[in-house]
Amino acid sequence: MDIITGFFGLVEDLTWGWALIPMLVVFGVFITVMTGFVQIRFFKRMFRVLFAKNQTGDPNAISAREALLVSVGGRVGGGNIAGVAVAITLGGPGAVFWMWAIAIIGMATSLVESTLAQLYKRSNGDGTYQGGPAGYIIYGLGAKHKWLAVVYAVCLMLAFAFGFNAFQGNTFAGAVYDSLGVDRVWSGIGLAIITGFIVYGGIRRIAKVADVIIPIMAFIYIGLTLLVILSNITEIPGVIWSIIANAFGLEEVVGGGFGAALAQGLRRGLFSNEAGLGSTPNVAATADVRHPISQGITQSFSVFIDTIVICTCTAFIILLSPVYQPGVEGIDGIVLTQQSLVSQVGTWSQYFLTFAILLFAFSSIIYNYYLGETALKVMTARPGALHVLRFAIVIVVFLGATAPGATAVFFFSDPLMGVLAVVNLTVILMLFPVALRVLDDFRSQLKAGVARPVFEPTAFPDLDLDHSAWPHAQRVAGPDGGALAKA
């Protein structure tokens, strides 16, 4: 066991410790510059997805908004509540600034990886689609790289479907026990039943559930934050100044100063929004959209919601509270966030926060399951395998919920996620010229006056694309079957 844990510790040191964060930052800056700061240029368009409907009328199709909410549900979790608190405790208020910075850069990275997932997606023949990093490895780099796709799929399943789902189950049961006194066994049984109902319904049911619970989750948390801000409105300028000053070493409130703020902000920000890690493209590929860039823009918005909105909410709750004492590490994580909120709006708020945490955990469980389902399809096409996976997920969630020490067993999740990220970043860099061609196609249609650009796969004959995955192109094509009508 010592040898195994030592091996995964080495993998984590080589990925998260040495290679990954520099790669995410450097690649993110490179992509941002080469795309002409696409996350800023298309920022207005991001908000359109909030009101988008199913564009085909097919009841099985996943809309852009539903794909957005599933990915937000996966991204938003403990990192947005406990992770931000840890970042501030260890890095000071300046860590928040660097979380913002890495999120803005990550928005461009997320746009590119999600665009590639859409570009190389495959139709399931029933109005739904599938794809992701494994898809753009196989169809983008070629079948000779399928071994790399299989490695990616195995790591994805072990890290997210099993490891992180056990952790989320444990978080769920722990929050219920601490706030309501419900025994872990009963909350574990309840969570397992609900999880089974959702996962056996597939991506269609997952999307429908996310469409309901994610807005509730976000509105509750943002609403609590607004209460805190309004009651401390005169202190907001001082908090913003402390964030900026500490970020650049003008004020030092923790040991390490600028370096601690930078390191904690980058690491916690990357853990939170997952931009470049290759997880959310699996969900991005399921959406029925008119152009790959459209879903890339949508997933870029997901990073904005996760870090710029939700993480900022947590930061203001903590920094406006007398509970937080710079340089003091006695209280951190979820406890710091909970006590900060209670000190501002009263003890009743802890129940609302508990409810939000439960939704965070549950939305992450169904998201992690879908990543496992996507990975399984890369490894085997046997129909019985999917039922085995669904049953295994229900059991893992229950075990994670009922065993207080269960999360320590899943020591392999973070190292494997590091492997996923290194593989994904390398692949999207190799396919970046293709993504730029798709981006140029989108921009040229906008310049020509097409309000809602439509992707025509026949315009890219050198790429291995599934033409049946783009029904919009067939409906808006001109009489000659080529030129697209203005839509």
From TrEMBL:
Similarity field: Belongs to the alanine or glycine:cation symporter (AGCS) (TC 2.A.25) family.
PANTHER family (UniProt xref): AGSS FAMILY TRANSPORTER, SODIUM-ALANINE (PTHR30330), AMINO-ACID CARRIER PROTEIN ALST (PTHR30330:SF1)
Keyword Nucleotidyltransferase: no
Name of the protein in its database record: Alanine:cation symporter family protein
Annotated membrane topology: Multi-pass membrane protein
Keyword Transport: yes
Superkingdom assignment: Bacteria
Organism: Rhizobium rosettiformans
The entry's keywords: Cell inner membrane, Cell membrane, Membrane, Symport, Transmembrane, Transmembrane helix, Transport
InterPro entries, alphabetized: Na/Ala_symport
Transmembrane intervals: 16-38, 67-89, 95-112, 147-165, 185-203, 212-233, 239-263, 303-324, 351-370, 391-412, 418-439
Subcellular location: Cell inner membrane; Cell membrane
Predominant location category: membrane
